Q: What sequence folds into this?
């Protein structure tokens, strides 16, 4: 009973702290919010155990790099992660500022709208990955996405409310990872809604696919969905510019799948694309995730 009381007290205090930060950040300029988040995480992150995971991931991505460069990139990674977490709390503000998110490859979105297609957009936890779904939505393509719920239920509801405020279409949606997301995604596809997926995190139920020459548990279910529903797969690269604006690069749809090519082979081709993105901007990837364990 005592433990239950302290648990409830802890999650309430956590929520109050996050909500107070949310209220303060709401009234600050976007660039200053990014600066605050980056500065705080740069100060704390390198002194945590998680920094060992960051350095290990960087050594896997860049095996020939010197320790001094690994340490520099690790600090930059903490800056990007801090910016992303603070920017999430003001996500609707960022999305409403047209100059903050620049689009390359808009013609592929125009083709989707013109042909009334549903597609699967694939990206990774790079730059600020939270901008991806609302940016596609505001460009006129209804899209659904999966999010990982936060253990604190009060904070989870707050973050979901913020995400929903950043979306303008009544058809676009967020769904929590798990059984519900599988149902919601299929329901969305049946309503001709496109899907956006971040495909770079470890999936314990996935297949071993090489990533940076390491067999890594990887989700490939979206390839089966694409085959079944005849959906194109469109890669989207997410880049943070120096002034903390963003660039989303929509690439041409992947070539149509040959039935003789396995899902694992297709995923390996996708990993080749992902590796190029990460190598181009290694500190912008979410290196705090233990991807290669």
A:
């Amino acid at each position: 009973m005592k433990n239950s009381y302290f648990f409830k007290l802890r999650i309430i205090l956590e929520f109050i702290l996050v909500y107070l930060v949310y209220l303060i950040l709401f009234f600050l300029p976007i660039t200053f919010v990014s600066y605050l988040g980056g500065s705080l995480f740069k100060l704390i992150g390198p002194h945590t155990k998680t920094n060992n995971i960051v350095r290990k991931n960087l050594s896997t991505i860049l095996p020939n790099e010197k320790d001094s460069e690994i340490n520099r990139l690790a600090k930059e990674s903490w800056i990007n992660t801090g910016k992303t977490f603070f920017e999430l709390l003001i996500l609707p503000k960022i999305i409403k500022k047209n100059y903050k998110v620049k689009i390359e490859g808009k013609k592929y979105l125009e083709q989707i709208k013109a042909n009334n297609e549903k597609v699967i957009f694939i990206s990774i936890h790079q730059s600020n990955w939270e901008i991806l779904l609302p940016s596609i939505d505001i460009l006129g393509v209804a899209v659904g996405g999966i999010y990982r719920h936060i253990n604190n239920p009060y904070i989870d509801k707050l973050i979901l409310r913020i995400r929903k405020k950043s979306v303008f279409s009544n058809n676009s949606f967020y769904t929590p990872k798990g059984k519900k997301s599988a149902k919601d995604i299929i329901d969305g596809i049946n309503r001709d809604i496109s899907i956006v997926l971040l495909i770079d995190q470890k999936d314990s139920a996935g297949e071993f696919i090489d990533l940076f020459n390491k067999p890594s548990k990887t989700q490939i279910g979206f390839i089966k969905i694409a085959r079944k529903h005849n959906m194109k797969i469109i890669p989207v690269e997410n880049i943070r510019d120096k002034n903390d604006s963003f660039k989303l690069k929509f690439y041409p749809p992947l070539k149509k799948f040959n039935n003789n090519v396995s899902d694992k082979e297709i995923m390996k081709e996708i990993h080749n694309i992902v590796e190029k993105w990460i190598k181009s901007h290694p500190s912008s990837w979410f290196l705090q995730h233990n991807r290669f364990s």
